[in-house]
Amino acid sequence: MSATLSHDVLIVGGGPTGATLGLLLEQFGIDTLIIDKEAAIYPLPRAAHIDHEVMRIFQQIGAANALAATCRTTSRYDFLNAKGEVLMRFEGTDQIGAGGWPVANMIHQPALESVLAERLARARHVSMKRRWKFKSLEADGEAVLTRVDTPEGEAAIKARYVVGADGARSTVRETCGIAFNDMHFDEHWLVIDAIVHDYSRLPPVNLQICDPERPTTCVLMGEGRHRWEFMIKPGESPDDFLNDELIATLLKPWNVEGAVTLERKAVYRFNARIAKEWRKGCVLLAGDAAHQTPPFAGQGLCAGSRDAANLAWKLAAVRKGAPDTLLDTYQPEREENARALIEFAIMMGQTVCTTDKEAAAKRDAQMLALRKAQPDSNAAPPVPPIAAGIILKGSVKAGSYFPQVLGEGADAARLDDVLGPGAWLLTREKVDLRSCEGLRVPLRPATLGSAELSPFAAPLHAWFDNHGVSAVIVRPDRYIFGTGGPVALIKAWGEMIA
Ligand SMILES: Cc1cc2nc3c(=O)[nH]c(=O)nc-3n(C[C@H](O)[C@H](O)[C@H](O)COP(=O)(O)OP(=O)(O)OC[C@H]3O[C@@H](n4cnc5c(N)ncnc54)[C@H](O)[C@@H]3O)c2cc1C
Q1: Which residues, including other chains, have CB under 8 Å from residue 320's CB and lie 6 or more apart?
Q2: What are the distances in angstroms from CA 281 to CA 157, 194, 440?
């Protein structure tokens, strides 16, 4: 066995959650090692969509522009019945969302992971080892000793914290004996990614075809690709569905022969479940290791990225002297958000995965009647604000998401690029900065009337006016700590992260 390596944080799993967490920790200067058992990025079909909030997280780690160059957008997400009637419709998915990026960004997950890998290769505080496989860990309350298999033999890594970002079948989770709460919605589907030669023959919007004969998904992906998914019905054998002749038959009604070439195919079974504990001492879980969702809302990778954003600043604060109990706020803050999105995906999935003709006819009648009564498109997912954790309870908008406003003009700047990473104190008037000294998590102050904020003055003033506040503290993950008078706010921030 080689000598024991030492790091502040060890991340097991270099998928999107682990890589994003590592890149966020890089910004806080936290010495981090990421290990992944695979030699290369996972090649099979997975995420096709990320939302505006997650693009903002990628913006923070310098990955958004490279990723945006590979993304496509579309104006609608439609749920149609077998006759082509609209059962449910989400419009405006190509518009700019609160995160300052399009509401829905259609991606190719390996392209996203390549962008993250390229950023990691340039990191100074974070390194990544491939073909390093987690085997076991021992924790003593102060640190974790992890044993891994490497191509050169076994290695031991000592770290203050270990984050299991090792996916749905997480060995870290199993080693810690953490069980799931199962929300009992799982089905087998065939997924096909295709290379596009002729976009004019493909639907320009995202579709769920709620046909009981064969529930089907047809969505855009990143530049140059398109995706179909077909439900494998009860009684059918998943193994039969990887047959190219059967795939050609399934694609026939789409009339895309010559317009696309099949690139990748896989049969997968989705789940809806949430780990009971996301922290056990010095070990934390993130991403699919902590929760799994059916794919209909396109939120699995998104939820993992939000975990990373929540965890990174807290791990950094604790490494810089904040109490370790700060990490106890991670699960209460994140779980309700993840659960709401899983429930939303289950609602969508139950609409789509109906294979009983009578039940489908009943569903159609109910949903068509509802749309007739309320013809507007459906609202965005109902995501609750943070209700417990590092927020100033009772203050206006505490726990809500702080929007990334855009500057005016063709080359509109984004607020985060101007203010940078970390926590912000935004005030109407200048404040005495001495009260910000000595904070465990420093505040980056900015005044609405300042030259640096002048491109954003109108939307920021409108936000302050709408909520009747004179100051806001925005946490590093861009959720609002609280609002109110600046002096009281700074005091509360200091006390909560003392
Ligand atoms: C068909 C399909 C469609 C999807 N569509 C979407 C979508 O549109 N939008 C969306 O947001 N999400 C979507 N998802 C979900 C998304 O792909 C996952 O949520 C995301 O990949 C989870 O990222 P992760 O980093 O948490 O886990 P993973 O991507 O699974 O990464 C885990 C990593 O850990 C490594 N690892 C595992 N065990 C060990 C070990 N013992 N030692 C070292 N390393 C280890 C693995 O090699 C892997 O690299 C979809 C998934 C599927 C299957």
Answers
A1: 440
A2: 17, 44, 22
391, exposed or middle or buried, with CB in 10 Å at 0-12, 13-18, 19+?
buried
Q: Give the integer Cα–Cα distance in Å for 165 and 179.
A: 16
* 383 — pLDDT class (breaks 50, 70, 90): confident
pLDDT tens digits, 246-267 = 999 999 999 999 999 999 999 9
Q: Which atom of ligand 1 is nearest to the CA of 51?
A: 11
pLDDT at position 2 is: 62
Mutate to test the pocket of ligand 1, among 288, 292, 293, 344 (most ligand atoms within 8 A of CB): 288
Q: How far apart are the first and last CA of the chain?
A: 41
- pLDDT on residue 1: 56
Q: Which residue's C-alpha comes closest to atom 15 of ligand 1? A: 300
What atom of ligand 1 comes closest to residue 170's alpha carbon?
A: 38
Question: pTM for this structure?
Answer: 0.97
Task: Determine whether domain 5-71+107-183+272-347 maps to CATH 3.50.50.60.
Answer: yes
Q: Give me the amino acid identity at 92.
A: G
Per domain, the residue ranges of the chain are: 5-71+107-183+272-347, 72-104+187-269+354-382, 415-496
